[in-house]
TrEMBL record:
Pathway involvement of the protein, from the record: Purine metabolism; IMP biosynthesis via de novo pathway; 5-formamido-1-(5-phospho-D-ribosyl)imidazole-4-carboxamide from 5-amino-1-(5-phospho-D-ribosyl)imidazole-4-carboxamide (formate route): step 1/1
The protein's required cofactors: Mn(2+); Mg(2+)
Catalyzed chemical reaction(s): 5-amino-1-(5-phospho-beta-D-ribosyl)imidazole-4-carboxamide + formate + ATP = 5-formamido-1-(5-phospho-D-ribosyl)imidazole-4-carboxamide + ADP + phosphate
Protein name (database record): 5-formaminoimidazole-4-carboxamide-1-(beta)-D-ribofuranosyl 5'-monophosphate synthetase
Residues involved in ATP binding: 226
Pfam family, one: DUF1246
InterPro entries: ATP-grasp, ATP_grasp_subdomain_1, IMP_biosynth_PurP, IMP_biosynth_PurP_C, IMP_biosynth_PurP_N, PreATP-grasp_dom_sf
Organism: Methanosarcina horonobensis HB-1 = JCM 15518
Family indicated by similarity: Belongs to the phosphohexose mutase family.
Gene: purP
Residues annotated for 5-amino-1-(5-phospho-beta-D-ribosyl)imidazole-4-carboxamide binding in this entry: 27, 94, 255
Enzyme Commission number: 6.3.4.23
Length: 356
């Protein structure tokens, strides 16, 4: 992994008044480029082969220039070129997936957020330690599949966009569906409403919902649309589907906006606060945008099962703001909030606090 000291050395050669914001042309890049432009930054889109043609349809979100690479791992060989452009990388899920987690950790270009958070979220044992240390309620983990007594969610390591999940109701069903050549985790299945909660942690602001260090914001929330889990039960009851050999799949195809009942907001903020405070103790903090994926039960208990330490695709609804971000600033997307944080840090000579 690139060390903090190396990043600080890179920043000595940067012109803070001529920063360019860059990311891979995928996932949430349209709102990242739009938000950067709104805050006066130049933008650079990274893509393999050629730029996506549909970017021409969105001139306000089209990057000012492109970096064409033969493969995304070629970014590693272009680091010096990127640094000469005063590039700050904004990571998103596709960026990390295409580049590879180890390459992302070693990429010699200043990157928004704390790269150590990726290590903690992608390792099930570390993530569990993080959550338990924060006092967060998680679905029960089942170490021995023979102990399955009711519905469980099985997730393969490295599952992306919901691909690699399945539900089993017994050991027999688990045994029929599992691929034992892959590493997996088994958790109890929680009945309730799925919420993806979009937060932003700033280590350089000390106003609003303040923490021991910095401040926490709730920018928006959404629920995933998954194929075919959201439509499959039109075809019959669970028993009939199993008899027909039809299994639900959980591949992300889109998102639906959500607003929580106001009485839940205190708990939602407390949840984000617990996650951030524990991250500060464990690895120096989860900086910038992050998402807590949770289920809210009919007793209004919040069960957390996943965390993403970067901008997530569910924020793409809110390029012109959400019911929550509008109460802080009009037209505040997560992409724009990232640009604002970089702008404030550059102006106050605090880039070292938000980059890694």
């Amino acid at each position: 992994m690139i060390t903090k000291q190396q990043v600080l050395e890179f920043l000595k050669d940067y012109d803070p008044e001529n920063i360019t914001i860059a990311t891979v042309c995928s996932h949430s890049s349209l709102q990242i480029f739009d938000g950067a432009r709104k805050e006066g930054f130049r933008t650079l889109g990274i893509c393999a082969d050629k730029p996506p043609k549909f970017y021409d349809a969105f001139p306000r979100a089209k990057p000012d220039e492109y970096l064409i690479v033969e493969s995304y791992t070629d970014i590693m060989n272009r680091a010096e070129e990127l640094r000469k452009k005063n590039i700050i990388i904004i990571p998103h899920s596709s960026f990390i997936y295409y580049l590879g987690k180890e390459n992302f950790s070693g990429m010699a270009v200043p990157t928004f957020g704390n790269r150590a958070a990726i290590e903690w979220e992608s390792d099930r044992d570390k993530e569990s330690k993080w959550f338990l240390g924060a006092g967060i309620h998680m679905p029960g983990k089942i170490d021995d599949p023979h102990d399955i007594k009711g519905p469980v969610m099985v997730e393969y390591e490295g599952a992306k966009g919901g691909k690699g999940f399945f539900v089993a109701r017994s050991y027999k069903e688990f045994n029929e569906l599992v691929d034992r050549t892959r590493k997996y985790a088994v958790q109890e299945f929680i009945n309730g409403t799925r919420y993806d909660l979009h937060y932003f942690y700033s280590p350089i602001r000390n106003e609003g919902y303040t923490l021991s260090k910095g401040s926490l914001e709730l920018l928006s929330m959404d629920r995933r649309v998954e194929s075919n889990a959201d439509e499959i039960f039109r075809l019959g009851s669970p028993g009939e589907l199993i008899e027909a050999g039809i299994c639900p799949t959980y591949v992300l195809t889109g998102n639906v906006p959500l607003v929580a009942r106001e009485s839940l907001l205190s708990r939602i903020f407390s949840l984000g606060e617990q996650v951030v405070e524990e991250s500060l103790a464990l690895f120096g903090g989860i900086t910038g945008a992050f998402c807590i994926e949770a289920v809210i039960t009919d007793s209004l208990e919040i069960k957390v099962f996943e965390l993403s330490s970067r901008i997530v695709s569910g924020t793409n609804f809110y390029i012109s703001g959400s019911p929550y971000s509008d109460l802080m600033q009009k037209d505040l997307s997560t992409g724009r909030r990232i640009a604002i944080e970089i702008k404030e840090a550059a102006r106050t000579n605090q880039l070292d606090k938000i980059l890694s």
